[in-house]
## 1
Amino acid sequence: MERKLTCIICPLGCEITVQTEDKKVLDITGHTCPRGKAYAESECTAPKRTLTSTVRCSDGSLVSVKTQTPIPKEKMSECMAILNGVTATLPVSIGDVIVEDVFGSKIVATQNKK
Amino acid sequence: MKDLVIIGGGPAGMSAAIAAYENGVRDILILERDENLGGILQQCIHNGFGLHKFGEELTGPEYAWRYEKKVRELGIEFKLNTMVLDVSEDKVVTATNTEDGIFQIKAKAVILAMGCRERSKGALNIAGSRPAGIYSAGTAQKFVNMKGYLPGKNIVILGSGDIGLIMARRMTLEGAKVHAVCELMPYSGGLARNIEQCLNDFGIPLKLSHTIIKIHGKDRVEGVTIAKVDERRKPVAGSEEYIPCDTILFSVGLVPENELSATANVSLSPITNGAVVDQDRQTSVEGIFSCGNVLHVHDLVDYVSEEAEIAGKAAVEYINAARGESVLIPIKTDGKIRYTVPQRITKKKDVAVYFRVSNIYKNVVIKVSDGDNTLLSKKKIKVAPGEMECITLKKEAFENAKELYFSLEEM
């Protein structure tokens, strides 16, 4: 089977063609860097996304967060539900772990808040 | 008196300040109207920033922090909550805040780094009354990402620029239903990666060559009528479709915010809506520089930072009166190349010329000529208005040129 992808790794947005058979990747063409190749391979076997969102802080304000590494794409809405139940204790610095272990990654702060 | 006053503490202003400092000017002041440095990056909590500049993928606030941290470490002075009211041609900056009242600063050089704002619904002439539930995509982004309010539950987005695409995903993740993204043009103005990860990932339809022709509802938006448009971008009779919704987001372009440039008599380009500049990002007024989205709207903040470094460094040369011999080589375009920045070259040194095309073209050659001879040509498989291109000209290449001409030929 042939699958056409738009790479999301960088703003170039290369159009990548992947030949697969029973979920096994046979050939990848159209990428212009090794990261693109890795993306295409993962997209056809176990697609992942970095999730960015916000969580409430102890004073009611918001702090922006992200998954430290990409999580399985189909887990994004579950992950959002987890974040809705989390309160971050102030102060928060960039890189602070807000939630340990979500779908093989961590939720870390992307903003400083006093 | 200050050596350098920078108007705007976003990515452009901070990067310009750091570049100026590192090139030897210490007496710098950044004026920022918001309560934080960082500008619009503060509300851009998605990732995808910094790949070019730092080789890693950062969110907006993280990218901004890299620069803010540096500004603080270097001890560069900045004033927050400060609104600049006027910049004069002789570089007197008038500003106000609650601590200093109204004050004036004479600067040796000024860098304009005010950024851009969103084009509003008012600019579009859509029929309907004025119900609640109509936002620009950036306003909705501020509500969701900084205030924690969801502006609505059933959304239609007009315009497929990157902010609209990013907000389609963001509103979906927060539990809203985005029914469609309508785009007037036959192609999207956003990055391909954003169509993939913001729309396709969530099954949100992108309706190209479609627009909103009527907004329904008196007190609150109740729905929209959308229609297909023809090649002249006029609605096609019989193609109307009603979509019930409570909220409409407009992501219909960005406009550089040049009111202050105008008070300083800086010449503006009708195409970019920003200043006309040379390779150093110096405007038509000597000692006033412009960089970032106030100069022309960029796709990537990484390019904004780079451009601001050029302006910061050049401002130092100007302050030190070390600008050397000057020439005047205007850069012209053929219309298929919509504009270039810089628009003119005043110094014989290697120059990176950034440009945008006016339509989607495939298999093209970009040619740079001096009117008689082709100095350089570059093949591209695909060019699109949403993606800024760059060609670097070696100084030897345009040594004898009176003017430069950028053109695009389809193969």
## 2
Amino acid sequence: MRLTCTVNGSPQQVDDVWEGESLLYVLRERMGLPGSKNACEQGECGSCTVYLDGTPVCSCLVAAGQAEGREIGTVEGMATEESLHPVQQAFLDAGAVQCGFCTPGLLVATDDLVTRSLAAGAPPEDAEIREALAGNLCRCTGYEKILDAVKLAAQRMAAR
Amino acid sequence: MRFLQPTTWAEALEARAAHPEAVAIAGGTDVMVAVNFGRLRPPVLLDLTRVAELQEWAPDDGAVRLGAGVPYARVITELGDRLPGLAMAARTIGSPQIRNRGTVGGNLATASPAGDAHPALLAADAEVEVASVRGTRRIPVTDFYTGVKRSALAPDELIAAVRITPPSGPQQYSKIGTRNAMVIAVAAFGLALHPDRGAVGTGIGSAAPTPRRATAAEEFLAGELAGLWESRGELPAATATRFGELVAEASAPIDDVRGTAAYRVHALSVMARRALTWAWAEYRTAKESRPCD
């Protein structure tokens, strides 16, 4: 089948999509956007987290056809030509990236958390961060530096 | 494989009638896992996410009619006050990403004994509203689960909504797993106190071939509370302990990778005792019963 949707603000159209395919597969294998990572394929690890109409979801659990006409946001849409997104820069500065496989999903989940928290008037607290990122597994860092990165990102995004 | 995407409820029911072999998909948190792992190759996927009627909830005839496609995240943010037991269950589910997609309708359709919504629905005496081109019927949730991942849903039917009466008393939910998030329950327990009719509701998860009630425990506790609803007096510790024992006796668990049968029985007795203690403490301090609409 044919799938038409918007990815990171750009219209995309792909043909010959198998109906059982996940949005993750479409992004990586048909649209050349391998930023979202394929690890567990069962929604357990969060490495494939993308925005679907502004809501963070595991793209491995979205059937391709369910994305028809929708707006998708992936990690590739975060940085500009000139600079990294403040969440990306904070992950680098805080040392929150080791092997990097979980990072794209964590960046999207963190962007969602910090954006929502700041819109509600306050940076996220420890318990909120742990809850918001509970669906993103990292096997390298032990999470401490990820917590640091989220707080740093919130600080910088609040100051902008 | 065909991919059908009805945009109205009438179209969805027609598609269902024409394709009883179709697998319905909403949030995809069960269906896509099975497809991704090659365990499921349905000839037709019937996507229900474009059916607006399924994405709504509304007060209806003294109950809340919760559309089958409302994701858990909205149950938590929009219905925490009206459906506290179900909202508590929803908070234990998966992760934010999963709660943004997963639905109560999907939990019912999968009918896993470990589904997190079931104990809360059982305790609250929920009804499942199912429909086909033949018409609509309501199934008491107690009668909905017929076996391991089997339900009373006919091949041409879809789940439209769940109907839950807002509580007249406290509700509690308890779940055991290896961590807080992303866990399939080792055992779960839901409790609802119904002071308006002197009754008690329970639901057991992950400890029998289907989610089930602990009827003997409900009757025992309703009897013990008969003299206490009015006075809001202290609940004897022995009553809570006995209630826990009776809940555990109602289970029929197996040993599996998540836990042993013996552990599940013990965990249920502890969860039920604690849930009752919490709920009764809340009832004693509540000045009036909760407003309903």
